[in-house]
């Protein structure tokens, strides 16, 4: 029985680690209603500044903390001033994407400066251990707990009793009203970003010392866990973020205790989904709090979409259809095949996120479901590949919609976070459900694409096949959007309350959108599986989901042609920048930032 | 310039171009252009560190190859394309390499999904895909253009099991493994071998690569009451587990797979990795000349930096590539056939490497039984810890 004490202590310790990130996220969300995906990167920057201070400059611990906090705060101020403030009057999704772009840039700068090899960050505290339960606790554990809880308390006092704190709260409740009352909202934002970044930086350093290890891949994990903890606690609620973090740590620890290590993250994300479904504003949201997103439509930029004349589209389709007759290299064809596959995924997401207003960050799960279904059917039951691909699409439609349906009552950012969690859950189920998915070994020897008994193995035939499928899906979707159904989708996106008052059944329409979108994504994943011949749980990961969202934003939300143009651009750009090797993700991040800044409605505009 | 009539110059260069075009094939074969290998691997993304390590090993091997006169008088060079170890990018790179006539064979990719997604393209394109970190059991089954010097886990894990069970006398084991294709395959080979040697497996725990917190896992391990911990880990997670094991009060003997063998393991693990036993494929104090030459060269080239296992793999791979190209010339198919002919190539990992034509892998990795003593890897002296 004593083990339970140990699991509890361990859960609280790791919960404290999560709290360090979650508090900063909560603070920023409270003021800007923004999930700052760059918070993990600031945490990374803090860890490396800490390394420079400790290992190169030999600073004592108090000085290290001050140096790291100051440097990280400066990074935060720069992000606020140059990355986010110019986006103040654009749509909600723009700053969200900007933080993703900023995180690419920061992570990459750190990697280029310090190399991707992990480094040891020695703890500057004496290594004494106190016996607690069957395990031990050291001074660093206590310091981390102290920093997490103290900062939450200080922030709470600051928000409640200081003048700037009042301004912060006023700005978070109603930005315009606060401005009319003379609150300098920019100054408030600056203060908040500075504080949050300082906290983030110090937490990166402390966590680095805790594990005696820092590496450039630590930022995404930190962001993911931080977001989960924050939302569980109630987005924007600082003490809630601490309690949410501790709860997350405990759930993970008990999950390991009961089911084993490989299920650990599964419980973290299940907790998130359960909390979102039962208490959509988090466990500690006050009952009086206004819904965080009054209208789903606030995500969508008002814009006049670029109308592409029908003849121009026909010409473009014709050119791409006959392209293989010209002397183009297989490399170009393969790159375009990737673009068509991403285009199908983008069609799926643009329908769900753009037309329907349900921004999904877990779309890679639909790819994975389609891919595994088609691969397993053709490999183990000898189903012809053509049929297996259709089955993959249908399975994604059915299973994807079922999984996502609990999130239908959520709004705005919460939809994104719920779908993010569902994406992670699907990936972890694939990893652990060995009897069906073969677990970490993955599925190899998947038969190549074939149609009516003919194998499609040359890049040319795969090119045509995927192109035809994509065009067919695009035509179908264009038809759908022009119909009564498409108008109902947009009505729900723009004002769900009005749509409901008008008698539209929200759940039914959302289901329809996810069914169609799931099919397109599932087909894309299935084709990829037969193209690669080997898939495992990592083939379709969170990065894919973020990429798909970027494509859709780039092209213009809800814009069918835009989705395809966006896919071509985002598959093409990294290939164009291939010569830039180590620098290309950096360039990609900067391009993303510029786009968000200068054309937030996307290249072709929102439909 | 003034002495030369401009028209003659233009004529001359035109003629040269025509001649060049007409005889490009034959001219290419004897040209002073380097023989080019394609490398597909991660330079950015979560596995970027391994791509960086590959480059260090490659560059060192190339320096030596060039200094020894290159390949029949021609230089050997590589073109590194960043795949981020992502299957979407590795297939595009595969098409690029296959359709680039200058590339005579390919090395990489790093992870199984990225490598095996590209395999069908290399196979159909008739370009050798030479993997040297590809331990997935199905990698070389992708076709007769897939070859690998990655040590088969079927080869390595029984040696580790022997070290743990027979030599260290551990009877009841807890196995912690990275839950990837590599970790999972390795675990199965290890568990089978350990059972054959008469050990009992008390618990096995798989963890994902991003995991940083192992305390709760280690409580499970403690409750299973083993007398030894086996880590099938990379150096970074291996060091983390060792540290946290000591922190939660586990004092059992720790035994780790060769993949932790890196100076970084000592740096990241600190005092916690003292007395950790490691079965490894090479060891700097190994007196074999291949090893000593590699280490001396590496330290000289990289300002005293200690090489680790991934440096050794890439160094070996480049030397193997050179040996194969020396036999096969600059022809892709001849290079494929050369893999069946190449014999006893000096190798840090294998001593000398020869391919088993049936499996297209190399057998007989060297094994040294190491233990960490006073913050250094040392040969185990047979004394219990």
TrEMBL record, chain A:
UniProt-annotated location(s): Cell membrane
Keywords linked to the UniProt accession: Cell membrane, Membrane, Transmembrane, Transmembrane helix
Q: Name one GO cellular component term.
A: plasma membrane
Source domain of life is: Bacteria
List the GO molecular function terms: branched-chain amino acid transmembrane transporter activity
Q: What is its main location?
A: membrane
Q: Please name one Pfam family that this protein belongs to.
A: BPD_transp_2
Q: How does it sit in the membrane?
A: Multi-pass membrane protein
Q: Transmembrane region positions? A: 12-35, 42-59, 65-84, 96-116, 136-159, 191-211, 254-278, 311-333, 339-357, 387-405, 412-431, 462-481, 512-535, 547-573, 585-604
Q: What is this protein's record name?
A: ABC transporter permease
What lineage does the source organism belong to?
A: Bacteria, Pseudomonadati, Pseudomonadota, Alphaproteobacteria, Hyphomicrobiales
From TrEMBL, chain B:
Q: Which domain of life is it from?
A: Bacteria
The family assignment reads: Belongs to the leucine-binding protein family.
Tell me the first and last residues of the signal peptide: 1-29
- Protein name, entry field: ABC transporter substrate-binding protein
Q: Which UniProt keywords apply?
A: Amino-acid transport, Signal, Transport
Species classification: Bacteria, Pseudomonadati, Pseudomonadota, Alphaproteobacteria, Hyphomicrobiales
CDD domains per the UniProt record, alphabetical: PBP1_ABC_HAAT-like
Pfam families per the record? Peripla_BP_6
Domain Leucine-binding protein span(s) in chain numbering:
35-366
Kindly state a single biological-process term from the GO annotations of this entry.
amino acid transport
Key word Nuclease present in the record?
Answer: no
Q: Record's InterPro entries?
A: BCAA_transport (IPR051010), Leu-bd (IPR028081), Leu_Ile_Val-bd (IPR000709), Peripla_BP_I (IPR028082), TAT_signal (IPR006311)
KW Signal (keyword) present: yes
């Amino acid at each position: 029985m004593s083990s339970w004490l140990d699991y509890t202590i361990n859960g609280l310790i790791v919960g404290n680690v999560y709290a360090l990130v979650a508090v900063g996220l909560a603070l920023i969300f409270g003021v800007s209603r923004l999930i700052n995906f760059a918070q993990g990167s600031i945490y990374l920057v803090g860890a490396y500044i800490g390394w420079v201070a400790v290992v190169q400059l030999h600073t004592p611990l108090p000085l290290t903390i001050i140096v790291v906090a100051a440097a990280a705060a400066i990074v935060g101020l720069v992000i606020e001033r140059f990355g986010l403030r110019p986006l103040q009057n654009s749509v909600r999704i723009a700053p969200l994407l900007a933080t993703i772009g900023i995180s690419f840039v920061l992570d990459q700068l750190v990697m280029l400066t310090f190399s991707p090899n992990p480094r040891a960050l020695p703890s500057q505290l004496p290594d004494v251990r106190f016996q607690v339960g069957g395990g031990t606790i050291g001074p660093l554990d206590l310091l981390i707990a102290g920093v997490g809880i103290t900062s939450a308390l200080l922030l709470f006092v600051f928000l409640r009793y200081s003048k700037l704190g009042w301004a912060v709260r006023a700005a978070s409740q109603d930005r315009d009203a606060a401005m009319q009352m003379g609150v300098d909202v920019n100054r408030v934002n600056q203060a908040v970003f500075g504080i949050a970044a300082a906290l983030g930086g110090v937490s990166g350093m402390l966590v680095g010392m805790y594990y005696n290890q820092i590496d450039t891949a630590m930022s995404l994990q930190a962001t993911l866990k931080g977001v989960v903890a924050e939302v569980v606690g109630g987005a924007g609620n600082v003490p809630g973020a601490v309690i949410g973090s501790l709860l997350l740590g405990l759930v993970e620890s008990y999950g390991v205790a009961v089911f084993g290590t490989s299920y650990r993250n599964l419980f973290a994300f299940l907790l998130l989904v359960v909390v979102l479904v039962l208490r959509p504003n988090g466990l500690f949201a006050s009952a009086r709090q206004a819904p965080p997103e009054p209208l789903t439509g606030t995500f969508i930029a008002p814009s006049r979409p670029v109308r592409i004349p029908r003849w121009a589209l026909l010409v473009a389709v014709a050119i791409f259809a006959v392209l293989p007759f010209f002397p183009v290299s297989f490399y170009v064809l393969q790159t375009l095949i990737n673009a068509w596959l991403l285009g199908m995924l983008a069609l799926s997401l643009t329908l769900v996120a753009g037309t329907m207003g349900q921004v999904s960050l877990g779309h890679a799960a639909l790819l994975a479901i389609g891919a595994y279904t088609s691969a397993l059917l053709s490999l183990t039951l000898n189903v012809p590949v053509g049929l297996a691909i259709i089955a993959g699409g249908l399975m994604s439609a059915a299973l994807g919609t079922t999984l996502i349906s609990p999130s239908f009552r959520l709004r705005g950012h919460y939809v994104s976070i719920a779908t993010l969690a569902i994406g992670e859950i699907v990936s972890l189920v694939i990893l652990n459900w060995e009897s069906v998915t073969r677990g970490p070994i993955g599925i190899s020897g998947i038969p190549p694409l074939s149609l009516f008994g003919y194998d499609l193995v040359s890049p040319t035939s795969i090119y045509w096949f995927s192109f035809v499928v994509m065009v067919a899906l695009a035509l179908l979707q264009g038809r759908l959007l022009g119909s009564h159904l498409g108008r109902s989708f947009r009505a729900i996106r723009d004002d769900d309350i009005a749509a409901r008052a008008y008698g539209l059944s929200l759940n039914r329409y959302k289901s329809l959108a996810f069914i169609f979108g799931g099919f397109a994504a599932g087909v894309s994943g299935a084709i990829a599986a037969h193209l690669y011949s080997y898939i495992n749980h990592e083939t379709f990961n969170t990065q894919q989901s973020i990429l798909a969202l970027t494509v859709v934003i780039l092209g213009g939300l809800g814009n069918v042609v835009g989705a395809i143009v966006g896919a071509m651009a985002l598959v093409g750009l990294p290939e164009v920048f291939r010569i830039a090797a180590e620098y290309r993700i950096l360039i990609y991040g900067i391009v993303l930032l510029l786009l968000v800044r200068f054309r937030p409605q996307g290249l072709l505009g929102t439909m | 310039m003034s002495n030369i009539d401009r028209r003659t110059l233009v004529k001359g260069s035109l003629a040269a171009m025509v001649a060049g075009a007409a005889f490009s094939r034959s001219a290419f074969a004897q040209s002073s252009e380097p023989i080019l290998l394609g490398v597909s691997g991660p330079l950015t993304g979560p596995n970027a560190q391994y791509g960086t390590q590959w480059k260090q090993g490659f560059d060192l091997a190339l320096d030596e190859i060039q200094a020894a006169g290159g390949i029949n008088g021609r230089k050997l060079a590589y073109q590194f394309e960043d795949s981020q170890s992502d299957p979407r990018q590795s297939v595009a790179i595969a098409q690029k390499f296959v359709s680039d006539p200058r590339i005579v064979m390919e090395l990489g990719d790093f992870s199984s999904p990225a490598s095996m997604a590209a395999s069908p393209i290399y196979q159909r394109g008739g370009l050798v895909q030479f993997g040297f970190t590809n331990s997935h059991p199905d990698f070389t089954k992708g076709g007769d253009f897939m070859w690998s010097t990655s040590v088969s886990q079927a080869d390595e894990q029984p040696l580790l099991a022997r070290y743990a069970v027979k030599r260290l006398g551990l009877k009841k084991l807890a196995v912690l493994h990275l839950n990837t294709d590599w970790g999972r395959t390795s675990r199965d080979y290890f568990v089978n071998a350990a059972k054959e040697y008469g050990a009992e497996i008390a618990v096995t725990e798989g963890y994902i690569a991003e995991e940083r917190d192992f305390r709760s896992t280690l409580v499970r391990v403690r409750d299973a009451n083993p007398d030894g911990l086996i880590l099938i880990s990379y150096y970074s997670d291996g060091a983390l587990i060792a540290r946290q094991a000591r922190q939660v009060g586990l004092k059992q003997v720790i035994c780790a797979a060769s993949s932790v063998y890196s100076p970084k393991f000592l740096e990241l693990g600190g005092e916690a990795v003292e007395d950790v036993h490691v079965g490894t494929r090479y060891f700097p104090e190994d007196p074999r000349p291949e090893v000593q030459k590699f280490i001396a060269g590496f330290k000289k080239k990289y300002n005293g930096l200690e090489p680790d296992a991934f440096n050794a793999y890439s160094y070996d791979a480049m030397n193997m590539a050179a040996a194969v190209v020396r036999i096969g010339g600059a022809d892709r198919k001849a290079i494929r056939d050369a893999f069946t002919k190449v014999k006893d190539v000096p190798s840090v990992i294998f001593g000398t490497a020869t391919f088993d034509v049936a499996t297209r892998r190399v057998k007989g990795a060297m094994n040294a039984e190491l233990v960490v003593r006073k913050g250094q890897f040392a040969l185990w002296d047979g004394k219990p810890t």
